[in-house]
Amino acid sequence: MKVNEVVVSRLKIEHLRETLGVGVPSPRLSWQVKTEAQNWQQVAYEIIRPGRNGPMHESSGRIESGQSRFVPWPFEPLVSRQRISLKVRVWGNDGSESAWSDPLRVEMGLLAPDDWSAQFITPAWAEDTSQANPAPYLRHEFSLRDTPVSARLYITALGVYEAEINGRRVGDQLLAPGWTVYDKRLRYQTFDVTEVLSAGTNAIGAIVADGWYRGRFGFAGGRRNIWGDRLALLAQLEVTYADGSSERIITDGSWQATTGPIQMACLYDGERYDARLEQPGWSKPGFAAASWSAVASIEQDLSVLIAPPGPPVRRQETLAPVTISQSPAGKTLIDFGQNLVGWLRIRVQREAGQTITLRHAEVLENEELGTRPLRIAEATDTYTLRGDGVEVWEPRFTFHGFRYAEISGWPGELKADDIEAVVVHSDMERAGWFECSDPLVNRLHENVVWGMRGNFLDVPTDCPQRDERLGWTTGVCPNRRLHLRRGRFPLLLAGRPGSGSDERGRRRAANRAQHPG
């Protein structure tokens, strides 16, 4: 940077790093200013919307203000699917003027219920929803008359989901759409899937699991089906061709459903996966799906659909074992040296049908895995091998708070290269760091940071490991200043107006149902 140069950078819409599928018609804009000038202050700014071919389309004009966070939208409200770019320049109290920032490209999501022609679909078979059920797989084949120049997938679920197109995973988000008050607001996700589509036959599929929607949740054993007893998928794929024409592929009665290797997936209890039940190519065109079942459409209020107000949950890093040892009872224990939230990834080779059991806990008790603090959360994943070479597996629709893991059923000697911990939490952007000359204080600070990471998995929680994991606001408020300095945590709460009161009302109603009078 040149001496006294002023640079505008890090433009954001509604504080979001990801600007595909924005859901606010008049979004607020934020930016940062970099300069080495002493005592520099912003005194004015200008925002422009460049046209597609370069010339300015619209300008706010010079606005006298030092504001650079959540700056009010200066133009007409945006509409569904609209694509724009923005640039900002600023003036300083020393008379300096910055160059225009790099453009921020923004694409709107679907803002109104009428934008949706898709229907919520659910497998047509009967289920005993008083217990955990296998996760349904849903698929659909369709034909495109040409290779699209643009394609967007708008998708959500009653439950948690992962989607695939032509055998490729869509996005890298986990446990989407996340924690929500389903009858008040349901987040949908927007993905650019242009590169995975081609002319001719294509296929789209999704797996849906219980998640927060109908899985076991709450105190004293929890309750099932708190929000509903039927998992469902809503997906709308919009493709645009070079001639400007477009078409939609939607969830409707033409889809098919089956079950597969995920025999059980529960946030508290873990995931049970039988690799012998995999159906390779299930989300690719040409897959033989004659044995798959029909689906049924269900009525759902589309007015509750909203774009995500904050970052999604993602894999953040992996940790290798610090030690692998035998407990006094002969159990294989792994210490990852750090309390974390996520799950285990294993690499194993053995004959088909052998089952490996993975148990998780934060502490040891009497040199054994300490599961007592988990109360009745089982925190146990199982993997049954298919037996065709090296198999790499990790769960998708659960999470655990742990430092230690107990492994049983492992074929032969467990080596450090065979297993790793996958750290998972909301993809917050870190805002600050701290370090001093005292290593104990540094360690204490890092413990706090890890505690934040573990308790910010889509919703700020009181704990990530036992049969609770609820969004108690009292756990957030005393530490709010630290949260603000260490992570951009307001994104997890922004866009949740009323969520707390909505959830408290639902809990009171549930308590009355359990304890009438």
- Radius of gyration using CA atoms only: 25 Å
CATH class of the largest domain: Mainly Beta
For the sheet with most strands, the description reads: 10 strands, mixed
Strand content: 35-45%
Strand segment count: 35
Q: What structural class do helix, strand and pairing data support?
A: mainly beta
CATH architecture of the largest domain: Sandwich
Distance between the termini: 70 Å
Unreliable residue runs: 508-517
**CATH fold naming of the largest domain:** Jelly Rolls
* Arithmetic mean of pLDDT: 89
Secondary-structure topology with pairs:
Blueprint: E1 6-13, E2 20-22, E3 29-35, E4 42-50, E5 56-59, E6 63-64, E7 83-92, E8 104-108, E9 120-123, E10 136-144, E11 150-158, E12 160-165, E13 168-169, E14 186-187, E15 189-192, E16 200-209, H1 211-214, E17 232-240, E18 246-250, E19 256-259, E20 262-266, E21 270-274, E22 293-298, E23 305-306, E24 313-319, E25 323-326, E26 332-348, E27 355-361, E28 363-365, E29 368-370, E30 380-384, E31 391-393, E32 400-408, E33 419-426, H2 439-454, E34 456-457, E35 459-460, H3 480-486, H4 490-493, H5 499-514
Parallel strand pairs: 2-8, 14-23, 21-30
Antiparallel strand pairs: 1-3, 4-5, 4-6, 4-7, 7-8, 9-22, 10-16, 10-19, 11-15, 11-17, 12-13, 12-16, 17-18, 19-22, 20-21, 24-33, 25-26, 26-31, 26-32, 26-33, 27-30, 27-32, 28-29, 34-35
